Amino acid sequence: MTVKFPSTPDFVGALYAPSRFEGSIRDLEVEGEIPAELNGTFFQVSPDPAYPPMLGDDIFFNGDGAVTAFRFAGGHVDMQRRYVETDRFKAQRAARKSLFGHYRNPYTDDPSVAGLSGGTANTNIVPFAGKLLALKEDSLPVAMDPDTLETIGNWDFNGQIGNTPFTAHPKRDPSNGSLLAFGYEAGGLASRDVVYYEFSADGTKRREIWIEAPYASMIHDFAVTPNFVVFPIVPITADGDRMVAGGQHFEWQDDLPFQFGVMRRDGDGSDIRWFTAPACFQAHVLNAFEDGHRIHLDMPSSSGNIFQFVQKIGAPAPAPHTFHFELTRWTFDRASDGRDATRQTLYDAPCEFPRCDDRVVGLPYRHAVMLGCDMSLYAIDRLGPPPWQFFNQLVHIDVVAGTAETWCGGDAECFQEATFVQRGENAPEGDGYILALLNHLETHTTELVILDTQRVDAGPVARVKLPVRMRMSLHGNWVPGKNIAAA
Ligand code: V55
Ligand code: FE
Question: 452-464, pLDDT tens digit by residue?
C-alpha cells in the first residue's frame, strides 16, 4: 500500500499540497527584529490530510487537524507542530489509510469505523481553563496539552455536556473570561436543534439553552454581546435523506432567506427573535455590540456562495469573480415591530478572516484586522489563476473612522489568517502587532510575518523564516505569557 495523494486542486501547489510535518524547530531564523513585547504563543491549526482520501478526492475542510505553536520569548521564536490525535486520526494511522468518506457523511465511511467520531479537530485552537481545545463544528472539542501538544482526548467538560457538536468559534466574554459556545445539528445529523452553552472561566457550565433554527443550516460562527447572542442562519442546508443516499452533507439553497436569531443570554430561548435579510453568504463574524435597543453585527459577506463544495444541486456553479464582497454591518432593532435587518457597508472590497481585539468582543469597538484581496496586485500572467482562499493583503480597518491601511505581501504571495496581539496589557484597543503566515506561491516557502498595527503599510518589522512549507490553515489565537494555565 503506497501513499499517493490525488493531483486535484485541494491537494496540489504551494497552498494545498499536504504538509504532514510533525516536529520541533528551536530558534527559527529571523529577518528584522522580534518586538520585545511579543512574549507568548501563537497557536494555529491547519486541515492537513494524513492519508489520501478514501474516495479519490476530498475537500480542504475534511483534512486532519495539525496544530502549530510558535513560542515567542526574549526575541526568539521556537516552533512545534503536531497532529491532533482524534479517534479518526488514530484509526486511520493504525490502518495506514483513510477510513472516512465524504465530508461529514457517516453513511460513506468504512464499516470498520461505524460509531467512531469523524471529527477532524481542524478549524480552531482555543485556550480554555488550562487546556487547548482543538475544534471542529461537527463534534466535541478535543483537548490538548498546551506545552507538549499531546492529545488528551474528546472533551465534554468533565461530563457537563452531552456528545454534541461544538462550534469552532466560541467567544470569550471579556468581562469575566467565560466561554460562550453553541452547537448546531445538536439533536442529530440534519436536525434543526441548536444548543447554547456558557462556561465560567474555571470550566463550570453555567447555562445551557436549546432552540430550534428555522431550517437546518451550517452555523459556522455567531456573535455575542453582554446580554445577547446572535445566530446567523445562512442558506447552506443539511438533508438527512441525501446523506443516507451517499450525497453531500450541505447544499446551497438561496431561495431561503438569510435569518438572524437574536436571543437573550439569561433566558430559556423562548425570547429568540428572528430577523430576515436577503440571501447572502457569510462564514465569519467580526464583532457585534449593543446600542440601546439595537444590536449591530459586523461580518464579511458576499452576494454568492464561495464554498464550491456546497453547490445548489442540479444548478451550475456561478463564478465567484462575479460576486460582490464587502464587510457588512447588520442592525437589528428589538424595539421595532419589523423583522427586517438593515444593512450598511463598512468596507467595500473582498475581505475575510476578520479579527478584533479580544478585549472588545461584544462591545463598541474601532479596530479590526482582516485578509483582503486585490487581484490587480497578483501576477496572474506569470502564475495563472490563484488557488482557492487567495488573500494577498493584510487589512487594518478602523470601523468608526471608515479608514483602512493595507499591505500586500507580493505579487506571488498570499496570507493565512492574521492574528492580532496587543502591545501590552494596558495598550489602547487595536495597538499592537499582526501575526500572519505568508505563503510564497512560486518558491513553495512560508514566512511568519509580524507587522505593527500603527504602520501596516510599511510592511513587516520581522519575518520569521520557516524551513518547512505550511499548508493553508484556518484559525489561530495568541496566548500571552509563558503559562497558558491562566488563559
Ligand atoms: C467552515 C469550515 C469547516 C467546516 C465548516 O469556514 C465550515 C467554514 C474547516 O471546516 O467543516
Ligand atoms: Fe471559521
Answer: 999 999 999 999 9
Q: How far apart are CA 453 and CA 448, in angstroms?
A: 16
- How far is it, in rounded angstroms, from Cα 253 to Cα 260? 16
Question: What are 364-408's pLDDT values in tens digits?
Answer: 999 999 999 999 999 999 999 999 999 999 999 999 999 999 999
Please report the DSSP string for 413-470 in residue order.
EEE---EEEESSTTPPTT-EEEEEEEEETTTTEEEEEEEEGGGGGG--SEEEEESSPP
CA–CA distance, 485 with 128 (Å, rounded to integer): 8
432 pairs with which residues across the strands?
Answer: 422
Structural domains for the chain: 9-480 (2.130.10.10)
pLDDT at 429 over 90: yes
* DSSP per-residue codes, 25-70: ESS-EEEE---TT--EEEEEEEE--SS--TTS---GGGSPEEEEEE
| pLDDT beyond 80 at 485 | no
Decide: 16 and 471 in contact? Cβ < 8 Å.
yes
pLDDT digits (tens, 9 = 90+) for 2-15: 789 999 999 999 99
Ligand 1 atom 4, closest CA: 61
Is the beta carbon of 249 within 6 A of some atom in ligand 1? no
Which ligand has the minimum distance to the alpha carbon of residue 47?
Answer: 1
- For the chain, how far is it from start to end, CA to CA, in angstroms? 44
> Could you tell me if the CB of 122 is within 6 A of ligand 1?
yes
Using pLDDT thresholds of 50, 70 and 90, give the confidence band for residue 1.
low
Please tell me the number of the ligand nearest to residue 184's CA: 1
| pLDDT, mean over the chain | 96
Decide whether any atom of ligand 1 lies within 6 Å of the 474 Cβ.
yes
- Backbone dihedral angles phi then psi of residue 49, each to the nearest 5 degrees: -55, 125
- Cell match 512560508: residue? 446
Complete DSSP assignment for 204-225:
-EEEEEEEE-SS-B-----EE-
What Å distances lie between residue 385 and 41, 319, 376, CA to CA?
A: 35, 13, 12
Report whether 66 contacts 48 (CB < 8 A).
yes
pLDDT of residue 158: 98
Q: Name the residue at shortest CA distance from atom 5 of ligand 1.
A: 220
Instruction: Name the residue at shortest CA distance from atom 7 of ligand 1.
Output: 220
